[in-house]
Amino acid sequence: MPLRLDILLIRRLGIALPDEALRDISAICRRLNAYTLIEFKSSSDTLVRGDWNKLLGCSHLFIAQSEEGHRRADLTLMLLAPRLTEAFHEELRQSDYVIVEEEPGIHRIDRGVFRAYVMETDQVAGLREPMLTLFSRQFIKHPGEWADLLKEEHSDMLYFVMQQIVQFRRELPQFEVNHMTEYMNQTIEEMEAAFLDALPLERRLRGISREEILKRYTAEEILKGYTAEEILNRYSPEERLRGLGEEDRARLRKLLDENPSSE
């Protein structure tokens, strides 16, 4: 149901989850059932009255349409949203459900047919939930701060999500559902390269000392893609000469001696 319900169905196979999953998506992974229905509310959306019963309806429809049949105990429902709102809470109360906070930002819905949870992405934002952090309002409001915190251990995930955000914003308001999968086949390396190419030179070099750059890359690699005019405009003569080895300095002296009138 595009633009109304964003639901993901996860089937849990009988294999152990990798350490990366438990580290990056801990809250969700620890609560996965044989089947898990997850409704996602983006950072620009909110939980409203009716959301719970719509998800509940989809859950019953999934059970009804299953050819092999499923036990209700095998299905868990999850809602990911920026905050647990009073309107949503009131809908639960009117249906005699009880909501219990298991841990900060993670709430269990009791007395229902299915096991169910609400996870507040704004509340769980932080290094203990890096994946959910990327879908929180905190990340949208302060992407630079969170990027610095996450990039060491979660750079692949960070680049992928940021690439998707950039793509979505570029397409809006003509964005269509099929665009969501158009770029999913890109490798992490391709997405990282595309993201870095979009950054100005100053952003790409932020936090990296000149000495580190000179140690890691040859002069040809550093200058690749930049015109002589760009380099000359960016650096003073002293900065351009800093870091040159004795051999490079000797070559430069020879060139100057051979071309004394050269600028």
Lateral arrangement of strands in the main beta sheet: 1-2-3-6-5-4
Shape: elongated
Please give the alpha-carbon distance between the first and last residues: 67 Å
Helix content percent band: 40-55%
Structural class, by secondary structure, is alpha/beta
Which radius of gyration do the C-alpha atoms yield? Answer: 26 Å
Number of strands: 6
| Main beta-sheet annotation | 6 strands, mixed
Query: In percent, how much strand structure appears in the residues?
Result: 5-15%
**Number of helices in the DSSP assignment:** 16
- Helix-strand sequence: EHHEHEHEEEHHHHHHHHHHHH
Compute the average pLDDT.
79
Uncertain ranges? 175-185
Describe the structure.
The chain is α/β, with parallel strands linked by helices. Among the domains are: 1-125, no CATH class; 208-258, no CATH class. Helices cover 50% and strands 13% of the residues. The chain is built from 16 helices and six strands. Strands 1-2-3-6-5-4 form a six-stranded mixed sheet. Strand 2, helix 3 and strand 3 (75-81) form a beta-alpha-beta unit. Helix 8 (143-171) crosses helix 10 (188-197).
Kindly list the characteristics that best describe this protein:
263 residues, alpha/beta, 6-stranded mixed β-sheet, elongated
